[in-house]
């Protein structure tokens, strides 16, 4: 049924810098209890327009984000920027397309989504509930970003930077020059175990590269906003470094994949505290890391 935007439930947002608002998702895997609302979502207000960074995991979450924006400003929402292809970040996008926003994403994202969408449209409602997923559809990308690009909002700009294959092969960061805030997507995560859908070595390489300019604060894809880059990247860096070392040990021992996966998960147990869904996600990551590193 149709209701006024003011009647919609709105996400809780925190203004972390002037004009920069962030919703922290639940640090957990998808479930009926969290209705798939696990990703960090943000919007930035300029003098003229608003840009949204990631749209949530369902139409309902996209609507709740839009309602939250309208509680703060009536400026037009002109851009929605997607940091990568994972469904908890992108499936609320259609709401913003309907509101007049252009959707921007890494040039590789549409193909990656097309390959996975049929599975998502079955598996996600099974995980969060059909009612929570009702009306959710895949939105078309308006602008494929192949090189660094700037989005002007009036008085401040967002600098988009496609990233070589790392967390996924569709990663893109966003830097707000008005507040020196870096929106890192899932290249940086806390609380929810990092998911390797790209390149382990590429991801570690990105983490080891100091950004220029250096941000004053970082919004990760999952977990709290951080005002120190070193502290922000430390959990992800430690996890991926341990994954690399455990995978190399399994390969050096000549273990086949069937033995290597449980061995890697067992070797990483000392760092499991504080990571949700650690064993299941690490088992998947172990398979990906083994396949990548066996070619070294």
At a glance:
The protein has 296 residues and is of the alpha/beta class.
Strand content bin: 15-25%
Number of strands: 12
Poorly predicted residue ranges: none
Mean pLDDT, to the nearest integer, reads 97
Spatial separation of the terminal alpha carbons: 56 Å
Helix-residue proportion:
25-40%
Largest sheet: 7 strands, mixed
Cα gyration radius (Å): 19 Å
Alpha plus pi helix count: 9
Compressed to H and E, one letter per element, the order equals EEEEHEHHEHHEEEEEHEHHH
Tell me the structural class: alpha/beta
- The largest sheet has its strands arranged as 1-2-3-4-5-6-7
The coarse overall form would be globular
Secondary structure: elements and pairs:
Elements lengths: L13 E4 L2 E4 L17 E5 L4 E4 L5 H12 L6 E5 L5 H4 L2 H6 L3 E5 L2 H20 L1 H4 L9 E3 L3 E4 L4 E6 L9 E5 L4 E9 L10 H8 L9 E6 L6 H24 L4 H11 L10 H16 L3
Parallel strand pairs: 4-5, 5-6, 6-7, 11-12
Antiparallel strand pairs: 1-2, 2-3, 3-4, 8-9, 9-10, 10-11
Helix pairs in contact: 6-7, 7-8, 7-9, 8-9
How does this model look, in words?
This protein is α/β, with parallel strands linked by helices. The chain has helices spanning 59-70, 87-90, 93-98, 109-128, 130-133, 200-207, 229-252, 257-267, 278-293; strands spanning 14-17, 20-23, 41-45, 50-53, 77-81, 102-106, 143-145, 149-152, 157-162, 172-176, 181-189, 217-222. Strands 1-2-3-4-5-6-7 form a 7-stranded mixed sheet. Strands 8-9-10-11-12 form a 5-stranded mixed sheet. The protein is globular and about 60 Å long. The relative contact order is 0.13. The model has no long low-confidence stretch (mean pLDDT 97).
């Amino acid at each position: 049924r149709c209701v006024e935007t003011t009647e919609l439930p709105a996400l809780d947002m925190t203004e972390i810098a002037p004009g920069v608002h962030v919703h922290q998702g639940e640090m957990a895997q998808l479930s009926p209890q969290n209705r798939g609302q696990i990703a960090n979502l943000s919007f930035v207000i300029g003098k003229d327009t608003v840009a949204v960074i990631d749209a949530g995991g369902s139409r309902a979450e996209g609507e709740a984000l839009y309602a939250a924006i309208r509680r703060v400003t009536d400026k037009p929402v002109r851009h929605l920027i997607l940091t990568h292809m994972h469904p908890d970040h992108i499936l609320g996008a259609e709401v913003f397309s309907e509101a007049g926003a252009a959707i921007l994403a890494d040039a590789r994202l549409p193909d990656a989504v097309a390959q996975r969408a049929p599975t998502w449209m079955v598996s996600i409602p099974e995980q969060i509930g059909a009612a929570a997923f009702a009306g959710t559809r895949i939105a078309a990308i308006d602008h494929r970003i192949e090189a660094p690009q700037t989005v002007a909002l009036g008085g401040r700009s967002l600098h988009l930077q496609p990233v070589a294959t790392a967390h996924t092969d569709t990663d893109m960061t966003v830097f707000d020059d008005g507040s020196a805030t870096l929106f890192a997507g899932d290249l940086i995560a806390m609380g929810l175990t990092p998911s390797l859908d790209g390149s382990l070595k590429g991801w570690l390489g990105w983490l080891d590269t100091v950004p220029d300019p250096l941000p004053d604060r970082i919004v990760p894809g999952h977990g709290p906003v951080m005002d120190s880059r070193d502290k922000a990247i430390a959990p992800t860096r430690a996890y991926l470094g341990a994954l690399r070392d455990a995978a190399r040990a399994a390969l050096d021992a000549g273990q086949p994949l069937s033995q290597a996966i449980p061995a890697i998960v067992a070797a990483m147990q000392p760092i499991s505290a504080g990571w949700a869904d650690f064993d299941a996600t690490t088992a998947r990551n172990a398979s990906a890391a083994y396949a990548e590193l066996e070619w070294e």
